[in-house]
TrEMBL record:
Entry protein name: LCP family protein
Family to which this protein belongs: Belongs to the LytR/CpsA/Psr (LCP) family.
Keywords: Membrane, Transmembrane, Transmembrane helix
Transmembrane segments: 29-50
Chain segments carrying region Disordered: 1-20
Domain Cell envelope-related transcriptional attenuator: 104-299
InterPro entries: LytR/CpsA/Psr_CW_biosynth, LytR_CpsA_psr
Top-level taxon in the UniProt lineage: Bacteria
Organism: Plantactinospora siamensis
Length: 405
């Protein structure tokens, strides 16, 4: 994003002043950039600033791929007008590992943008939600379809594949499953690599947020000599087996915290030892809060530094893979320029409480309540604002903490 070299000092000063003004005008797009699948809107400030160089530089950092496949709409002649729904998927392990190991989606979020493009809503689908996964052939290992937890859809779509092919096929089957249970055709999609967000936080230096319940790490701790050590023995399915003697786990107490990159990544992964015993509901809420806190901090800390901004864009580009749904990123950017971090509302399915049932061959699974189905219907019909007004307790409290200190 450097300016074209000038032949005299006056021109250089003018270019520097222009650069500073452009950076001050970026908050909206950079906030989107470091958020979730809303990276689709990361360019809005650049579009408004009229800087082709800035626009091209930002676009080049975004990894783009057709993820939706047959689950998406017609990709030709798509329009940015009207309500939009973006499917965001976080992974607990990126494809590229042993092809015999199934990769399950760690978090599944529907981002709804109303027709007026003034705000956004994030709706998380619990990873243990009981669904009917449609039959699917990825060209290597066909899946016959059947009843299972929703996070298994990505696994069945990607099985036998690695790398980009695993991502694309896993995402497609998950999108087909979401479409089947909600009636919503995603307009775009994105894969979020929470490990990649460690570098985003590294660029910012830290991320400050409010921890709404004391959280004990099952992954990170210290031994008696103060050396890093795993505090718990973990089962192959990711659950806790037993505590490791002599190792003290990291504990993130309720209250304001400014996390280091490693702490931030560890915190958003936790689901087993949460004070409120809300497990996946707690983790999905914390991931939503973390992403929103990062967006806010980019606006407050990351945009006024010409040295931070390029690294920030690069880190976000590596942390996400985006399917623009056939709409140019520049068009997404301009249309979503009015959405700010404070305009994002996160909503809890099942009001954040368990509605479990034991299912033969599946185990304990979450059943979406009738009110959760109403929520998804409001997303489909672009009436989420009315749902939120009628169900205010379903909205997740903001988590951003002061960045002083």
């Amino acid at each position: 994003m450097s300016q074209t070299p000038r032949s005299n000092a006056r021109a250089e000063r003018t270019a520097a002043g222009t650069k500073r003004r452009r950076i001050r005008r970026i908050p909206r797009w950079a906030a989107w950039c470091t958020g979730v699948g809303v990276v689709l809107m990361l360019l809005s400030g650049a579009a408004l600033g009229g800087s082709e160089a800035l626009l091209n530089a930002a676009t080049s950092k975004v990894t783009q791929r057709n993820l939706l496949g047959s689950a998406g709409g017609e990709r030709h002649h798509q329009s940015i007008t009207g309500a939009k729904n973006i499917l965001l998927v976080g992974l607990d392990a990126r494809p590229g590992q042993n092809p015999n190991d199934l990769v399950r989606s760690d978090s599944i979020i529907l981002m709804h943008i109303p027709a007026d493009h003034s705000k956004a809503y994030l709706v998380s689908l619990p990873r243990d939600t009981l669904v009917e996964i449609p039959a699917y052939d990825n060209g290597v290992r066909p899946y016959r379809g059947g009843q299972n937890k929703i996070n298994a859809a990505f696994a069945f779509g990607s099985q036998g594949l690695t790398g980009a092919a695993a991502e694309s096929h896993g995402f497609e089957l998950l999108a087909l499953t979401v479409k089947h249970i909600t009636g919503i055709t995603p307009d775009a999609g994105a894969i979020i690599d929470f490990t990649g967000f460690k570098q985003v936080v590294q660029t910012l230096g830290r991320v400050c947020m409010y921890v709404d319940e004391t959280t004990t790490s099952i992954h990170v701790g210290k031994d008696a000599n103060g050396r890093p050590a795993g505090p718990y023995k973990i089962n192959p399915d990711g659950t806790v087996n037993h505590r490791i003697p002599g190792v003290t786990p990291n504990i993130y107490t309720k209250g304001n915290h400014c996390f280091s990159p490693a702490e931030a990544l560890d915190f958003v992964r936790q689901r087993d030892l949460l004070a409120n015993r809300d497990y996946d509901y707690g983790r999905q809420r914390h991931q939503q809060q973390f992403l929103k806190a990062v967006m806010k901090q980019v606006v407050s800390d990351g945009l006024n530094s010409p040295t931070k901004l390029p690294s920030l864009l690069s880190a976000v580009g590596k942390a996400m893979t985006v399917d623009d749904g056939g709409i140019k990123l520049e068009d997404w950017a301009f249309a979503m320029r009015g959405i700010k971090p404070d305009s994002i509302t996160t909503i809890k399915t099942n009001n954040g409480t368990f509605n479990s049932r034991s299912v033969p061959g599946v185990g304990s699974a979450e059943i979406l309540s009738p009110t959760s189905l109403q929520l998804l219907k409001s997303v489909r019909e672009d009436d989420v604002q009315a749902f939120v007004a009628a169900h205010p307790t379903w909205v997740t409290a903001d988590s951003a903490a002061p960045t002083t200190g």
